[in-house]
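Entries read chain and fold; for instance:
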Amino acid sequence: MDKKTKILVVEDEEILLTALTEELNQEGFEVVGAKDGIEGVEKASQEKPNLILLDLVMPRLDGIGALKQMKENSTTKDIPVVILTNLSDYDKISDALSLGAMDYLVKANYRLEELIQKIKTVLERKETGAGPAAPPPPPASK
């Protein structure tokens, strides 16, 4: 029998964490949740997920700090990470991609189908050895 693809969702907004967990479970993924960066780093090591969805703005340890720790740990450094963020985080998205995140999603702008497709795409890119996504274009100056 196929082993389920395990996804670690690191998100401090409990409503969003619950919604993502339910949506991903319905799509057949096994989901592990973490409420901040410290818990996310611990669960990444313990659970060894196939992919991590990582919020950037969180208490205790933000997404950039968590990503740095995950990429420095031999157990977690090769796990693909998709950043969950808000639109205004352009610099942080660029930082996260340069630290080894594979892709990003803007929270306010995606539908479930897009999230599932992004997860599948990132997992395929990991298998084929393709690199991370391009960073977003800088915001247009007004």
